[in-house]
């Protein structure tokens, strides 16, 4: 089995390690939770293990749908072997229903269905507060090429279509979510990072109850239970 060698990076929710196999990294999911660019700090018991399972489950489904992802294999509760990539420094946000920063910025009530899916890019720069950028900024700063932006956009819409339908069958509305992509050594764009209640807004389709990190961000209580509920619905569908 693949073994960790040196730690390459520690983020707010995960650590990434180099391994004894070329082209393979190991990610290790933490229980730490932050919000508002690290201003709010806490911990969500069991989150690392849940996000590891949720993200791997969804990435495996996406692979079957023809979306290339970094997922290789689950190693244990919180660790997964992934393809080594260089992360494209963009947060790609896909929105179906108004919520969060979109509601604030455009004065839309949370829960308003958008007439078309909205795609946003933010420059991954904590020191700048991850500012929103458009395709011109991305090219002007050399963050990604025109072809890469097109690939990333196409994959993001496909992921949204597939996941929205899959989750709705489980009684979950996919309100919005954030994706990150990486470049493999041979220059291909693949889906990286995670897809979990940390990075998505999941609402119960009937009650509209929030089943994601907004419970932590907004001090709504029942954070652990919401993460467990998402895992239960996904695993029940296996
Ligand atoms: P926003 O409404 O705060 O811009 O968030 C949009 C989506 O992106 C939401 O599903 C949460 C996710 N997200 C992250 O995964 N990481 C972040 O740092 C932020 C700000 C949002």
Model description:
This protein is α+β, with helices and mostly antiparallel strands. The protein has helices spanning 47-64, 100-106, 135-140, 146-168, 214-217, 223-236, and strands spanning 4-10, 14-19, 24-29, 32-35, 40-43, 71-74, 79-83, 86-87, 90-97, 113-123, 132-133, 172-183, 189-192, 200-204. The chain is built from six helices and 14 strands. The strands form three sheets. Strands 8, 9, 10, 11, 12, 13 and 14 form a seven-stranded antiparallel β-sheet that branches. A five-stranded antiparallel β-sheet has the order 1-2-3-7-6. Strands 4-5 form a two-stranded antiparallel sheet. It is globular. It has two domains: 4-83, Phosphorylase Kinase, domain 1; 86-222, ATP-grasp fold, B domain (D-amino Acid Aminotransferase, Chain A, domain 1), CATH 3.30.470.20. α1 (47-64) packs parallel to α6. The structure holds thymidine-5'-phosphate. Thymidine-5'-phosphate (TMP) binds next to α2, β12 and β14.
């Amino acid at each position: 089995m693949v073994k960790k060698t040196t730690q390459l990076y520690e983020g707010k929710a995960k650590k990434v390690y180099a391994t004894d196999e070329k082209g393979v990294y190991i990610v290790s999911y933490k229980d730490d939770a932050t919000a508002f660019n690290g201003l709010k700090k806490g911990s969500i018991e069991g989150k690392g293990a849940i996000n590891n399972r949720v993200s791997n489950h969804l990435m495996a489904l996406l692979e079957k749908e023809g979306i290339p992802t970094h997922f290789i294999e689950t190693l244990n509760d919180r660790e997964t072997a992934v393809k080594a990539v260089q992360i494209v420094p963009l947060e790609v946000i896909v929105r179906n229903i108004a919520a969060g920063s979109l509601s604030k910025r455009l004065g839309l009530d949370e829960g308003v269905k958008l007439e078309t899916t909205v795609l946003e890019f933010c420059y991954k720069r904590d020191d700048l507060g991850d500012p929103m950028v458009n395709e011109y900024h991305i090219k002007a700063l050399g963050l990604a090429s025109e072809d890469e932006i097109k690939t990333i956009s196409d994959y993001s819409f496909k992921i949204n279509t597939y996941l929205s339908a899959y989750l709705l069958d489980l009684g979950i509305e996919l309100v919005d979510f954030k994706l990150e992509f990486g470049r493999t050594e041979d220059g291909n764009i693949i889906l990286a990072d995670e897809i979990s209640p940390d990075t998505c807004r999941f609402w119960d389709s009937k009650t509209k109850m929030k089943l994601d990190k907004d419970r932590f961000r907004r001090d709504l209580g029942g954070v652990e239970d919401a993460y467990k509920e998402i895992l239960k619905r996904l695993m029940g569908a296996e």
